[in-house]
Design a protein that fits this description.
heterodimer, A: mainly alpha, two-stranded antiparallel sheet, 19 helices, 1% strand, globular, B: mainly alpha, 77% helix, 0% strand
Chain lengths: 481, 217
């Protein structure tokens, strides 16, 4: 029933939105739907933290690993929905968009959320593929939302690269199915069945399949060198969507990689998959580090930071042991930090009307609360203690230092370079001399509450991990090993 | 049995050859016709593979595949060509001899790397699987080599056709419900990609992807 609620609620909201005539009704519907998803998502996560698998029919089930991602989707989904209300109100006020655009936005936002909940909940790899492809289709128009040539270009790039990636992922998925064969058994193929039969998988086929899956779904995760769509899409989409794309969608795609990794590990052991993830993770971090250092656009800066953090999580999963627990924890901390940073970036954009770092100066004077949030976000995302990312990175690098010294050193150097890059960019944005032409004052309470909520949650979870969450992460780490 | 194998091989050739020809053709209309031929061959393969398990849902799924790939997709593409006068489009990144050389290299690598893996699939002819996988890689090459938005769309759909062919030859067709889900997904993709193609033309005055230079680092 709860799974049904998480999927049906955004679907119903999207369908009802098509006939809505008032902005207020659209806003209310989106927020109400997000609250239902949030409550249902948390309730499922709580149930699963006890060790059980939450099931709905033969096609839907949520185990601990899915529940971790569901937890992320529920929290960030609610924050993004509330933030969307505040953000779009400001854009309507400025005359950037009208009612039709607002309605289009909320329909697509709800479809996007539905596709993510569906992808996380299904036990069938093909249904998961369809749902992840649906996230591409629902967000393409959100990326081209402002109907400018640059956003159109970004959306096209996003559509083509992700479609190719997902088709390769689909091919990899089919290779896994060879262990069971086609015939009628294909109707009931699920993650547990694939895992149970993994020992019969030909080792060469398992390796080739995992390469296709990692390249395919890794495109959606944002692994370098398949990452090229990500900075464009994340920087051109409206800020709430950027927050969702970066904080949530990447984790949903990562879930697919982790599912296939468990199956491959059961067939050929963890070495091959571990090395592949370490290679992608290290390369992603290095690429992101150099580009972050010279990046002139703060939304693109945050997008490259997502590539870096997906790289760190990949390192954790690749290192194994404690790294898997830390990798999952890192996905949670990254989702909270990055979405709240994208929301504060949205507030900054609303005030300064520019995404260029050089044109944003003195945010602290012009936007007192957002300025503090920007600074807190910088500290959180670069892994400064006591923020959680410091803890998860510390665990990940501890796991890597004994067995994989070279990638750990390279990753540490990349982290240092990224910190320096962020410091140079953010200090100017927050403390520089503000242009006199820009009036002082925040945009609106609804543009502040969601990032404040996410920051509070991040601080709480950084200082104290509740027992159910620890239990959930431990169970999830066992599944992802 | 022998004649069935030959027939399957001919159909597989009809899936594979259009991909190579899409690389070489100078006209967009020809590229769409080639995709149509490829889709007809894939639909025939699906029909043959489903002879022994006829059900209503399977027929609906097969019918929707034929509808989307043979009628809807080409209709959208011809409409796009007509609307934006895109009959000719010779723009490729590489010239014809180099294109052919790259295709030959892909075929060689495909044979070398994947033949060992496919030999382990007991129920299938490894040669047919190898041709399907070669088709996948050469379709990917369309996306890199051709500059037009239309060619990129055809490259992706051709890639999908090759994956379907691979699934048929490996005996991995999904149940009709899932097949229907996949084809519905592709239908939505075709519609969205066409809408984007028109919007790109309106913004850039061209469907050549190299003309899109509004995104800078």
């Amino acid at each position: 029933m709860l799974i049904f609620l998480t999927i049906f609620s955004p679907l119903a909201a999207a369908l009802i939105s098509t006939v809505m005539k008032k902005v207020k009704a659209l806003e209310l519907l989106a927020v109400l739907s997000a609250i239902i998803e949030f409550i249902a998502g948390l309730a499922i996560a709580l149930k699963v933290s006890g060790g059980e698998v939450y099931k709905l029919g033969s096609y839907f089930a949520i185990d601990a690993l899915s529940a971790v991602i569901l937890f992320i989707v529920s929290i960030v989904g609610l924050s993004a929905s509330v933030y969307s209300v505040g953000y779009l109100r400001e854009e309507v006020k400025k005359g950037i968009i009208g009612f039709r655009r607002v309605r289009q936005y909320f329909i697509l936002l709800n479809l996007f959320l539905m596709a993510m909940f569906f992808a996380v909940s299904t036990t069938n790899p093909i249904l998961m593929w369809i749902a992840i492809e649906a996230t591409t289709l629902s967000t393409a128009f959100l990326i081209s939302f402002y109907n400018k040539p640059s956003s159109m270009e970004a959306a096209w790039k996003y559509l083509i690269i992700n479609s190719v990636g997902l088709l390769l992922g689909f091919f990899g998925t089919l290779l896994y199915f060879t262990v069971i064969g086609g015939e009628n058994s294909s109707s009931v193929i699920s993650w547990p069945i694939l895992l149970a039969n993994a020992s019969h998988l030909n080792p060469l086929v398992a390796k080739i399949a995992f390469i296709f899956v990692t390249v395919g779904y890794g495109t959606k995760v944002g692994f370098a060198p398949m990452h090229t769509w990500l900075p464009d899409a994340h920087s051109k989409a409206p800020a709430p969507i950027s927050g969702l794309l970066s904080g949530v969608l990447l984790s949903v795609a990562f879930l697919a990689v982790l599912r296939f990794r468990s199956i491959t590990n059961a067939a050929i052991g963890p070495e091959f998959t571990g090395n592949l993830l370490i290679a992608f993770g290290t390369f992603s971090m290095v690429i992101a580090a150099f580009i972050i250092f010279v990046q002139p656009n703060y939304k693109r800066l945050l997008a490259y930071s997502s590539i870096e953090h997906m790289g760190i999580a990949a390192l954790g999963f690749g290192f194994g042991g404690l790294g898997i627990f830390a990798g999952l924890l890192h996905l949670i901390y990254h989702a909270l930090s990055k979405s709240f940073l994208f929301f504060t970036a949205g507030n900054t954009f609303l005030k300064f009307s520019s995404t260029r770092i050089a044109e944003v100066r003195g945010a602290l004077t012009k936007l007192p609360v957002t300025g503090i949030l920007l600074m807190a976000g910088f500290l959180a995302i670069t892994g400064v203690p006591p923020f959680g990312i410091f803890i998860s990175e510390f665990y990940i690098f501890s796991a890597g230092v004994s067995q994989h010294l070279l990638p750990t050193i390279v990753a540490l150097l990349a982290v240092v370079l990224i910190f320096a890059g962020f410091l140079q960019h953010f200090s100017g944005m927050v403390f520089g001399e503000a242009p006199a032409s820009i009036p002082r004052g925040e945009n609106g309470i609804l543009t502040l509450l969601p990032p404040l909520f996410l920051l509070s949650l991040l601080v709480i979870l950084s200082l104290f991990l509740p027992a159910p969450l620890v239990s959930l992460l431990n169970s999830a780490a066992l599944i992802a090993k | 049995m022998g004649s069935t194998s030959q027939f399957l091989f001919i159909l597989e050739a009809l899936v594979f050859l259009p991909i190579v020809l899409i690389h070489l053709t100078k006209k967009n209309t020809n590229a769409v016709w080639l995709y149509l031929i490829q889709s007809a061959a894939v639909s025939s393969l699906l029909l043959i593979s489903s002879f022994d398990k006829i059900s209503f849902l399977l027929l609906v799924s097969l019918g929707s595949t034929i509808l989307v790939k043979i009628f809807v997709a080409p209709w959208f593409f011809f409409r796009l060509i007509k609307r934006h006068h895109l009959k000719f489009s010779a723009s490729t990144q590489l010239n014809t001899p180099i294109t052919l050389f790259v295709i030959a290299a892909i075929l060689y690598l495909n044979q070398t790397v994947l033949s060992g893996a496919f030999a382990t699939f007991s129920s299938s002819d490894p040669n047919l699987l190898l041709i399907s996988s070669a088709g996948i890689f050469i379709s990917l090459f369309i996306l890199i080599n051709r500059r037009g938005v239309l060619s990129q769309m055809l490259g992706i759909l051709s890639l999908e056709n090759c994956i379907v062919t691979f699934a048929i030859f490996a005996g991995l067709e999904q149940n009709p419900g899932l097949q229907f889900g996949i084809i519905f997904d592709i239908l939505i993709w075709i519609i969205i990609a066409n809408v984007f193609a028109s919007m790109i033309y309106n913004h850039f005055g061209s469907l050549d992807v190299t003309e899109m230079k509004k995104l800078t680092e």
